[in-house]
Amino acid sequence: MLRATEILRAGLWGGKPADVVRLDYDKRTRRRMALVGNGGLSFLLDLAKAPILRAGDGIRLEDGRIVAVEAAPERLLEIACTDERALARIAWHLGNRHLATELGDRTIYIREDHVIADMVIGLGAAVRTVERPFNPEGGAYGHGAVHGHSHHHGDGHSHKHHDHGDSQRHHRRDGNDQSGPRTLPLPLTGRG
After folding, report:
1. Contact 124, 88 (CB under 8 A)
2. What is 73-133's CATH topology?
3. Dist. CA 102–CA 123, nearest whole Å
4. Which of 7, 14, 46, 79 could be bridged to 108 by S-S, CB 3.0 to 4.6 A?
């Protein structure tokens, strides 16, 4: 099978592509997979590390041809608030849940999830379902893909995966952390 091992960022390649692949966000972050372009060209994407492909990027095939990347529309929730503080609060809650999140002008986009929709509505947001390409922010340090989890369940999914390794620990709320320095809860100053 024809292989592709190089990504060319949008604007760094030109000409007519050999074919076009239309990929959702998850597929645009895969390191290795078989792909078939809209015109029928089959190839194996075989990269050294997982990319974040964006619309307009090119995938160079081993024979030198380039396949263009399109971002496929996905069902998303568009979240809006009446003021920036409320939107920042919603963003904090989404980040706290490690959800892939795209920030827009006065809006936030996440994958459709009825549990999260109910939560943000309860926090005062307006929510509507839209279909558009999803381009979430990179990882916490500005790179890498973010793969949050949804709340579909029934597929063997468990929430017991939140492990920080040896460098970080969860602390008990009562301040009695037995694994390191004692931490004390911060006093609440009221909601505002």
Report:
1. no
2. Alpha-Beta Plaits (3.30.70)
3. 19
4. 79
Task: Select from 145, 146, 151, 148 the least CA-distant residue to 119.
Answer: 151
**What dotted CATH number matches 3-71?**
2.60.260.20
pTM listed for this prediction: 0.69
Dist CA 113 CA 100 (whole Å): 12
With tokens 């986009």, the residue in question is: 109
Buried b (16+ CB within 10 A) or exposed e, 53-90: beeebbbebeeebbbbbbbbebebbbbbbeeeeebebb
What is the location of CATH 2.60.260.20 in the chain? 3-71
What are the pLDDT digits (tens) for 41-58?
999 999 999 999 999 999
DSSP notation for 136-172 = ----TTS-S------S--SSS--S-----TTS-----
